[in-house]
Amino acid sequence: MDLKGRDFLTLKDFNGEEIEYLIDLAAELKGKKHKGIVEQPLVGKNVALIFEKTSTRTRCSFEVAAHDLGMGTTYLDPTGSQIGKKESIADTARVLASMYDGIEYRGFGQEIVEDLAKYSSVPVWNGLTNEYHPTQMLADMLTVREKLGRLKGVKFVYMGDARYNMGNSLMIVCAKLGLHYTACTSKKYFPDQTLVEQCREWAKASGGSVTLSEDVISATKNADVIYTDVWVSMGEPDEVWEERIKELSPYQVNKSVMDNASDTAIFMHCLPAFHDLKTTIGAMIHEKFGLDEMEVTDEVFESAQSVVFDEAENRMHTIKAVMAATLGAYK
Fold it and tell me: Would you tell me how many other CB atoms lie within 10 Å of the CB of residue 254?
């Protein structure tokens, strides 16, 4: 399959066969890395990494993956470029494309990464926007396949705020790959209905399904995957914490939720997670609201069912696959 020159902005732009190809390629590259096999098919190429929102996993994944492929990287932090300030997105795209072979963007509105791609002559990769997080999806699906041995037919439940990048993207990838996706949350936090209907069309073709539910017991019964994310997204004001805690606490992933799921169910989280008091925000929330844990209990996070660190490692392997495929290293 030839994906050379393609942008990677949202999985809406890729069909199920293309997504599975990238997962297969990631698994192949992961196997080689674990065996110590070094291949650098992209020596001499360079990529620009624009981070308007900081990150641990995304930055490290892109940098290590690029290095493994033989490429150089330039990291541009929130103060390291003039994008949208002194220089338009269109001009930034054209400048960077004249010097680099690929551009990664992690930041705010999806329209920013779409504009970068519109004016860039080299592939643009979405490291996260408010609306979509496609590289995380490949890592998640690779992890599910590794742990459960399949994707089609998997009962996948996402708990929490399902309106933004994680809820949107998980619904899309599950629909395209034949999983049975359920967003389990308060009706106020259901995803956009237009996207839901589009995903249901994709699911009909793939053999999957898309369900919205407010009932934790029925939604998680015999689930194969229980997934959650932080209740307040990066960049949102502190004032929303009280509202989210009040409305999303019934959707916390705890032992009773996992006990209601399948005996072989796994717990997933894209990280960072607020499962204890060992972070500045965790301590702040404890002081203000008296909570020791939020979207997931420490008991579940540290349990044998938790695969969050395998999932985190897979970010690097899947990002490597995306860069390699779109830059023409493998076909």
Answer: 14
